[in-house]
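SEVERITY: medium
COMPONENT: batch folding queue
REPORTER: lab tech (J.R.)

DESCRIPTION
The queue accepted two submissions in a row. Attaching both inputs and their returned structure tokens so the on-call engineer can compare them side by side.

ATTACHMENT 1
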Amino acid sequence: MFKNLTSALVKSELYNILTLNLAPQTRTLATNPEEIISKHSQFLKTLFLESVKSVQPSTLIKNKIKVTESHLSVGGRTFALQKPCYIVGFGKAVLGTAVELEKALCDGLQRAIVTVPKGIFEQYPNFKEFLRKTECIEGAVNNIPDEDAMDGARKIKELVETLGEDDLLIVLISGGGSALLPLPKPPISLQEKQNLIRSLSKSGANIHELNAIRKQLSVLKGGGLARLARPCPVVSLILSDVVGDPLDVIASGPTVSSLDDPREAIKILEKYNLYTTLPSSIKTVLDSSHQPFQNHSTLQDQSSNNTFNHVFNFVIGTNKIATKAAENLAIENGYQCAVISHKVEADVDVLAGHYSELAREILAGKSCKVMKILQELPFELEEDGVEKLMGFGFKKKMLLIFAGEPTVVVRGTGKGGRNQQLALSLSLQLNNWQEASPSGKSGNISFLSAGTDGIDGPTDAAGAVGYSGLVRECSGLDINPEPYLKNNDSYGFSSLFRDGECLVRIGHSGTNVMDLHFLLIDPED
């Protein structure tokens, strides 16, 4: 049987350094601050690993899809498999999904092409033993479109264009899919598009803004792939890496009718002061979109008139599955636990301030202030999670779970990612509070921020752990974390501090449902 991404993940560095029993823990009496921090850090990493395992392709295929000799069933719909079946896919989770589907479809599968992030092959070197009909192409180093990714996108386009109504196309879509499906509209070059997306990212553009631009500049995005496949029936299996799971945004919506106003792309570029410096090729494509705009109702009418009625989109994996796995394990280990939000979107420095203030007021036992802070958070909350939190005993240890995808503005020249930046920023803000209120309520606040794809920025880490005593510990080691934070060099700091113990390393996880934030508050330590 294929030693799939789940088993590979279990063998990863993260798993090997963990020794915690996943059964309910007995209360330890550690009093040494370093022992306490190590214990909490290990537990948070264990929770993260369990979350990632819950959204592995093998688990999702088993739970969400049923394949027999004659039919494929998903999301309450059934599709006949008497037709020749083809697969195309792009993203961080498609390798494991392709393996599981090729195994299930057997002789019914005619051909498959999937594009995956650079580095996947190195982590899972034996995957080719289990893919007889699937061509796998690596590309998009550090999630930036490149020639290899464009070659894969071109091959996917050529395959899709040959299909007819007597075929069945299964499309595998997951996080990272946009970077792995770059086929710019002529006369735009890949380098021109690449430079623009990089500039937007560094300017702090969120995923919605990035994908709005990508859709206007790409052949396959914004429903382009589905249009090329018509009239072939299309079944899309989607792992969401976007807050709120909007189908037209995930991987820039290659199988979804785009409802975007083309003029929005120009407004976004103007917002970040990038429009006036655009290459003429990109301006040409954007200007050509200024035909009378088809509004939402027009596009919806068009969709009902058979443009997209051959397409069936199913979301089989979301961050709610991952947070539920973490919540269950935390409760088993004696923690009060609440999932506060699945839709975190904010700048990481702003977010660090909110998390820090929330944890401090919980330690102080001030329920009124806790509720006020929650109401001021700049993203949608889970009502039942908030209700749970307000019913907790604030003198007992608790874990608060947040999920989503914040942003970071890169101002320095260092190396890091939004998760590592968030963990370090929170640690510094907690220290500022402790220095300002030395007689405040004691206790321990620990925090993990990590991406479920296993990669945070151009680093080999998924994220990092931070905690309330980190800065104080640094002073004894003659390390000042603040310059690292200002230079966006969170990876440089975490690699040096404690020999990298605070980094969360699992390599490419083979899945992606955005970032997870675990805020652990223990008044007894």
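ATTACHMENT 2
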Amino acid sequence: MTLASVPAYWLYDEPREQRFPDALHIERISARSAPRDWRIEPHRHQDMAQFFLIASGGGLVRIDGTDHRLIPGTVLLLPPLAIHEFRFEPDTEGFVASVASPTLAPLIEAEPALGAVLGEAFVGRRGPGDASIIELAAMMEAALAEFGRNRGSRELALAAHARLIAIWFTRTARSHAVAISGAGDARAVLVRRFIERVESHFHTHEPLDAYARDLGVTGPHLTRVCRELLGHSAMRVIQGRLMIEARRDLVYTRSPVSQIAFRLGFSDPAYFSRFFAARVGMSPSEYRAAG
């Protein structure tokens, strides 16, 4: 399947032109999945993040070609443009909160490092009786109740609920590696500091050793810790952040590819095009046309 063939929706199976007007759209998983035989086909969303909680049941989710098992207590963060599909077990229940990017913008403006966390897909698993899962379920239940009413200041209330849910997920995503690996605080802190530094320096193309030196470690040590806690190299974190920004510029702006390349710190637009194509399988211009 090519990117061009993957449908883009605001909400699954609804045309992009029918953009939902609220800061937050939230519903139970069964509301959209049960009528479709518990199958959600491959699709993506532009300018919208989604937050899932599996309360009961389970199944399988495929995110950008990688399969993840769903069990009670699983939480998912899906950033804009992530290609995903679901195969739910019958009678699976939980919540899906869909949040337009402008709703999250104030969080990122206040704490820029959150942009990196919210820009990466995240899958976490905790027991359904875990205190943090109970907290999230209560948040989503309250958001669903607000969504279903037509009270004064509804949009402000929905935006507040959306941001609380997003903050829960960013906190969980940041701490998840420690929870599943038993890693000590020092390694988790190092990775968080690295991600925060990447957020503010990715466009400068600093070499990995410069990042490591500023963090007080060696390049090989930083790479090893990233592999242990994130499952991939430190260089991939940097390159991944560049790719997120490149995709956003290509989809959401009309800037020429050469201008995007220069803004992202590439001195040669042709090299930027090769860099992009090597990771996406198509040129920047083709990606823009497909989006």
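NOTES FROM REPORTER
The CA atoms of residues 46 and 80 lie 5 Å apart.
No errors were logged for either attachment.
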